[in-house]
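Re-run requested by the PI after the first attempt was lost when the workstation crashed. Everything re-entered from the original request form. Ligand of interest: magnesium ion.
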Amino acid sequence: MKTYAIALLPGDGVGPEVTAVARDVLREVGDRFRHRFEFRTELIGGAAIDTFGDPLPPQTLEACRSADAVFLGAVGGPKWDGAPPRPEQGLLGLRKALGLFANVRPTRVYSDLIDRSPLRREIVEDVDLVIFRELTGGAYFGERKRGPTFASDECLYTTGEIERIGHAAFAAARARRGKVTSVDKANVLETSRLWREVITKLHERHYRDVQLEHALVDSMAMQLIRQPRAYDVILTENMFGDILSDEASVLGGSIGLSPSASLGATGPGLFEPVHGSAPDIAGKDRCNPIGGILSAALLLRYGLRLHHEADAVEVAVEAVIRSGERTADLGGQLGCRAMGEAIIDELHSADLPRAHHVQMHWG
Ligand code: IPM
Ligand code: MG
């Protein structure tokens, strides 16, 4: 029996609720597939500020570095909106410290939830896209300045930073439908002109078999809701990816369904739902655990390379959605815990699925 060390960072808001469910899903996977998961829970974000005055305490970072994979709930909330440090610095610091340059955010639309989408059926049916967001560069990590009457955030990218996320996106496209849409603002920004040049060259040198198109981010924001089916892999820089991934997550009916993986060249990956801390419903057992559970599936697939196990979790989620179970964000009554238990029960009793889909290559 193999043992895997998983660092759990519940964080703030609904983070602890979804993390508890994700942990129990992983436990069930461990039982069914005979793996041992050893969990170590540490503070991050606002919770860590309250205890240590530091959104990323050294012992949290140490636990992450020595883990095989990291699961994070969410960080942030109105409580810490005043003076620095901010909870978000914990997450940004962790991404940087672990070298997690590739943020992978898949969006798919479940046919049973199509009526929950704000868009018409014929637009969202069969949408299956993934955003590759560069995660450790750009304006998020540039030099910040503040004077009495001005402020600035430097946006800087190097060729090396663009190349490595480009490789990841092209390789993923090869294992999917073979198309990359690279998003920039090359009509205005110098970083975007560099981005376009580097991606174009990379494509010519190594990925001629993949179809590459370029899009400007403003137009992309529009096309993503006009014809989301046209996209396979969307590749973009940090800030554009932050914005477009929230937009993409509503296609399927709720941001509560969306998972994400943040990966580096080596070392543990970080897996977290896209939804954030949702302070308005925190502690009420009202949030949707599916984004967290699907992030646990990504942890199995990309973090631990346990592909069958990841498939089993995704199939169980789909089965429970098909059976009509719904949390409040999808117009239902089920609490976070009860939804988690429904999925765990399904995982417990279902026939183990065969590997049924194309795997995305990583590394
Ligand atoms: C995300 C979040 C974070 C980001 C925040 C919490 C710092 O919005 O993961 O998309 O902007 O990257
Ligand atoms: Mg975001």
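Saved to the shared folder this time. The longest strand covers residues 2-11.
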